[in-house]
Structure formats: structure tokens, C-alpha cells
Amino acid sequence: MKRFLGIILSVIILSGSIATEAFAEEPSYEIQSINELEEILDEAYQDEKMSPSEKNNIIERTEPKVIEELCCKKIDEAIEIAEDIDIESIMNENKSEIQYGRKKLDIDDNYEAYIEFEDGEDKTIVGTIMDKLISPAYAATNGEKMWKSYGNRYFTAKITVSVGVGIGTCCLENHYKLNSKGIDENFGDAYVKWSASTGITGSLSPIGVYITDSTARTVGKSDVNMYARFQLDNSGAGTQSQTTIKLSTTVKYLDKDSTNKKIKVQHSWK
């Protein structure tokens, strides 16, 4: 009987210990809102540069979703700024006839934002899917006007923002086809990326890609377009709401060269 009671007592002690350890593992964060985080970052950047120890300290004290929420806020601001940029002036073509450009956006002093542009020939849908598993396409030109050969192509809107303690990216890939009839949308894809060091689990995610005009047939008067919506659930990050980000892309049908099998297009996005 004493042995039996001893076993029961041991189980109770062990269970209590496990419960205590499990409870102790629940993180308790000091910084629970965007406003608090922005104030802390302002203090950290008073000397114009945040030290690695300061960065790690802020990350440890901050609810990960708050960092994600701040990234979303700055991504939204960066998208508005990027709409007015003359993209053609920063595009360059490499030996593979792929055009690429990257530009830093002017947002708040404590943060960095970049937009990247790439336009190139798309492969078959199967080949594209395989490539995306290895290296996704970058963003394409905004306001670009050029002649392109018939076939499958892609361009992408990609915004990346760093808030000092985290980095977030939103991207919309537009895959379309040029042919003797004009322009046809193939499909769209959207994704989100976060820096791994902040503990962000990815509660911001694309909730859909929507093609609003799938074909363009009239030279100079038609286009194809699509948009993606990204949604962040802010519950538990100091608020009880949802943040939505929208990226849109358009390919305008400007002209056609039937002899050389080319179409002149203009890319834009917002």
C-alpha cells in the first residue's frame, strides 16, 4: 500500500513538474503593439544605427505578430510610393535578354524598402512550376513599353521592406501569353516571405489571385490584368482586426507586328 501511494505521489509530482515546465515555456512579450514597437525603434535609431545586441533585445521583447504587422504597414506605404517611380530609367537588359532593375524607396528613416523588376520569357507551365520551387521570379517593370515575341512571358510585382527587426516581402507573379490574336492571361501566383530570425510564423498570406480581364484583342485600347489580396490576422498583436494588402498588375496591348510575330506591350502595377 505504501509503495502504491508512493507511485501515485511520484506521478502527481511528475505531472505537476511537466505542467509547470509547459506553462513556463509560454512567452510573455513586453511589446504588444505597433505604436510601442515604433517608439522603441525610434530610440534605438537615435544614433542612426541599431547595434546587433539592441536588435536581438527588441526581437526577444516583441510579440512576433507585431513585427509582421509593422512590416505589412510599411509594405502598404511602399506600394503607394512605388506607383510614381519612372521604372524605365532603372531597367537594364542582360545577355539572356532578361530585363532587371532594383530601386530603393524613400520611406521613413528607420526603415528600408526596395522594389525589384524583372521581365523575361516564361517556360512551359510545368517548367515554370519547377523553377518556382527553386527560385521564384522577381518583379517586373512598371510603365515599361517594348516589343516582345509571341510566346509565354511573366512579370512580377515584388516589394521588400525591412523594419530593422524583421524583413517582409509581398509578390504577385503575372504569367501571360502573346499570340497572333493579342494577349491572354495564363495564371497568377502570389507569395509572402519573412526573415527567419524574428520568429514570424507567416500569418500574412495570399487569400487569392483574381484575373479581372483575361484577354486583350484590340490594339491600343485593351489590356489584361489581375490582382492579389494578402491578409494579416492582427488578433493577439494588440488589436482585434485584419489588415489587407492589394497588388495589381496590367499588361496593355499597344501594337502588333504580324510579320515578325511580336507585340508591343506596356506593364504597370500598383
Describe the structure.
With 270 residues, the chain is α+β, with helices and mostly antiparallel strands. Helices cover 27% and strands 41% of the residues. The protein contains 5 helices and 12 strands. The strands form 2 sheets. The protein has a 7-stranded antiparallel β-sheet, with helices on one face. Strand 6 and strand 7 form a beta hairpin. The N and C termini lie far apart (76 Å). The N terminus is likely disordered.
Low-confidence stretches: 2-24, 125-141
- Using the CA coordinates, give the radius of gyration: 24 Å
Residues in helices, as a percent range: 25-40%
Question: Structural class, judged by helices and strands?
Answer: alpha+beta
Distance between the termini: 76 Å
Mean pLDDT rating: 77
Which strand order does the major sheet show? 1-2-3-5-6-7-9
**How many helices in DSSP terms?**
5
Tally the beta strands.
12
Give a summary of the structure in a few sentences:
The protein is an alpha+beta fold and 270 residues long. It is built from 5 helices and 12 strands. Strands 1-2-3-5-6-7-9 form a 7-stranded antiparallel β-sheet, with helices on one face.
Question: What order do the helices and strands come in, and which of them pair?
Answer:
Elements: H1 2-24, H2 34-44, H3 52-61, H4 64-82, E1 92-93, E2 99-105, E3 112-121, H5 125-134, E4 144-149, E5 151-162, E6 167-179, E7 182-194, E8 204-213, E9 215-216, E10 222-233, E11 242-257, E12 262-269
Antiparallel strand pairs: 1-2, 2-3, 3-5, 4-12, 5-6, 6-7, 7-9, 8-10, 10-11, 11-12
